[in-house]
TrEMBL record:
Record carries keyword Amino-acid biosynthesis: no
Descriptive protein name: Pollen allergen Che a 1-like isoform X1
Family named by the database record: Belongs to the Ole e I family.
Keywords, ordered alphabetically: Disulfide bond, Signal
Signal peptide: 1-25
InterPro entries: Pollen_Ole_e1_allergen (IPR006041)
Protein's UniProt keywords contain Electron transport: no
Pfam families, per the entry: Pollen_Ole_e_1
Protein species of origin: Gossypium australe
């Protein structure tokens, strides 16, 4: 049998999370955008066990006013460390802007094609979009017999929709979730199917060190979608979802 050459093309992609620190008020906020750049060695547009961190990759953060597309913030070019990680400090609140971390370039010639799915990643740099007064709770259950091993009191989100829960002990044998309980807003009280609860790891025996544990944002759905949702979803390529927010189909643009 003839040898068939296998050509492996590589691309690099990005994941972004953000941590927030409150300083006086929203206009004086300091945000730290934390992210990671890796090489998608399987060309599947998401991270796998074979993915490799890219040290020396370059990214930048840009914010643009969503009305006139005017540039409201632009970071310097940031270089990832030996683990492919980076952080960008941002001062101020950008409620009226869309902010994205953008891949600039890779130092690896064999892994320099930006991932289509993750060449740009959106990050929220405002605390003015939270649901003040929303109620959540944390519950842990033994993964063998489903017995409750920890249950917090109901926790009320602050004026920015943020909350924190202090937990003592280690819950290696439990699955722990923060769950939405109720919303104080009549027009935004339907829990989202994807984010009505979020898993959080409360053990140090799985390689996670330190006290802080970050939970994915939980969300309620507004009764009626905002009029600008259709345009935003179109820009993101979610055509089927955009039809739910308004009359749009890909064929209408042809």
């Amino acid at each position: 049998m003839a040898n068939i050459p296998i050509i492996a093309l590589f691309c690099f992609t990005i994941f972004v999370s953000s941590s927030l620190k409150f300083v006086y008020g929203a206009e004086n906020m300091t945000y730290v955008v934390v992210g990671h750049v890796y090489c998608d060695t399987c060309r599947v547009e998401f991270e796998t066990k074979l993915s490799e961190p890219i040290s020396g990759a370059v990214v930048k953060l840009e914010c643009r006013n969503r009305t006139d597309n005017h540039l409201t913030f632009q970071s310097q070019e940031i270089v990832t460390d030996e683990n492919g990680d980076y952080h960008i400090e941002v001062e101020g609140d950008y409620e009226e802007s869309d902010c994205d971390v953008v891949l600039v370039r890779s130092p690896n010639p064999d892994c320099s094609e930006p991932s289509e799915a993750w060449r740009i990643s959106r990050v929220v740099l405002t605390r003015l979009d939270g649901v003040s007064g929303a109620v959540v709770k944390l519950e842990c259950r033994n993964r063998t017999n489903e017995a409750i091993t920890f249950q917090s009191q109901e926790i009320v989100a602050d004026g920015f929709g943020d909350y924190h829960i202090t937990v003592e002990g280690d819950y290696e044998e439990s699955d722990c979730n923060v769950a939405l309980v109720r919303s104080p807003r009549a027009d935004c009280s339907d829990p989202t199917e994807a984010w009505r609860k979020s898993r959080v790891v409360l053990t140090t025996f799985d390689g996670l060190s330190g006290k802080l544990r970050f939970v994915n944002n939980l969300g309620f759905k507004k009764d009626i979608a905002l009029p600008q949702c259709t345009r935003i979803l179109q820009e993101m390529g979610y055509y089927e979802l955009s039809q739910e927010a308004g009359d749009f189909s890909p064929s209408s643009k042809l």
